[in-house]
Automatic annotation (TrEMBL):
Pfam families: Amidase_6. Residues 69-210 form the Putative amidase domain. It comes from the Bacteria. This is Putative amidase domain-containing protein. It comes from Herpetosiphon gulosus.
Length: 232
């Protein structure tokens, strides 16, 4: 990883272009310490532009073998919908965290995969009763198994290495079954990582504050680096 200062902006370059970090991690000086939960950053997310970008990306991914995950679109969706109640047209599950990150990933360019709804090989959303979505779409453990068996990302071992658009999963009881999923919605130049999630709903919570909630030290963390250029 290397840093450079160009055109009044800091740029961070990562060695492996699968992660798409070089062209994404660019922050102007005025952006460095902006809390993504503030109204300022939300004002930058023009919903019409976001919806047009999603439409164009969806059209492209249906007709292309070049599968691309846009960290920008995924995190823009997360920031826009993380704290709100309701599901922006999606079915809301009792435990809704993984459903929400799947919405972010789909917005960012993940292609749905057909499969039996109770298997870990399919990732899709139908929105219709009785099978609103495949288990990997809305269940944290099944999402873990699906992603672990595909080439859409890889496990990393330090939560402080997460970048925006990456996923963090948790186990609450020192085990290895996933209990929760959240997305990194922003990372400042100084390295502050902000998390966004559902159940409970919040947007732009510093990861340091999240970790501070583990008062008994019982949680296990499972961070994921998501590929920008991925395979089915």
């Amino acid at each position: 990883m290397s840093f450079s200062f160009e055109d009044s902006s800091w740029k961070i370059s990562y060695d492996d272009d699968r992660f798409g970090i070089e062209h994404n991690i660019t922050r102007k000086n005025s952006d460095i310490e902006i809390n993504p939960a503030s109204s300022d950053i939300k004002k930058r997310i023009d919903q019409n532009t976001l919806q047009k970008s999603i439409y164009l990306l969806d059209t492209e991914r249906k007709n292309s073998t070049n599968l691309v995950y846009s960290r920008e679109l995924a995190t823009q969706y997360a920031i826009a919908h993380g704290a709100q109640e309701g599901e922006n047209g999606y079915h809301e599950f009792s435990y809704n965290c993984t459903n929400f990150i799947s919405q972010c990933l789909w917005t960012g360019g993940w292609v749905e995969v057909a499969g039996y709804y109770k298997s870990n090989s399919g990732w899709w959303y139908s929105g219709g009763w009785p099978f609103y979505a495949a288990y990997p779409w809305h269940n944290a453990q099944y999402w873990y198994e699906f992603t672990n068996n595909t080439r859409r990302g890889e496990r990393i071992y330090n939560i402080w290495d997460l970048w925006f658009g990456d996923i963090l999963q948790y186990n609450w009881t020192k085990g290895y079954t996933m209990d929760h999923s959240a997305i990194v919605s922003y990372r400042s130049y100084t390295g502050v990582i902000y998390m966004t999630q559902h159940t409970p709903n919040y947007e732009g919570k510093p990861l340091s504050d999240v970790v501070a909630g583990d008062v008994d030290g019982d949680w296990n963390y499972f961070p994921w680096r998501m590929y920008v250029n991925y395979e089915m």
